[in-house]
Amino acid sequence: MKLEGSLTEREGQSIRYTEPVGSHPLLADLIVQQALAAGANAGTTLAILGHGTPRNPHSAENVYLQSDRVREQHRFAEVLTVFIDQEPHLSEIFTRARQASIVLVPLFAADGWHVTETIPEDLRLEAGEVTRSGKTLRYTPAVGTDPRIVEVILELAQLQE
Fold it and tell me: Domains in the chain, start-ordered, CATH in brackets?
């Protein structure tokens, strides 16, 4: 992209290169709100889902960062981190979760192909829910669908008034 640091002026336009959206502290609150809207409570296992990839050791960092931030709030019985393409894998969620109630929150920018098709198919979700091994999992929309994500982007771009 031939950027010249965090701010590049080109053809009368300002281009800002920011920290990743996924590292912003507000995302932990957005994750919590998604979980609560899905019925999570103090007796729930909250699982935060990231894409991940074994090809890049840094791909999971922000997912773990947000999981730690949510865990520090002490709102849920446990907070797990799972991934589509790396360990710990989403397929292990029912064996890893200690609680009978699980809420799975995808830390994705949008309700795209993975969030709306591959993950629900892999979990065999029906109406956003599935019961397996005596545990009920509820699935939320992607964190990036929360309207407050705009606040995160504006703050990162230092345009918030």
Answer: 20-156 (3.40.50.1400)
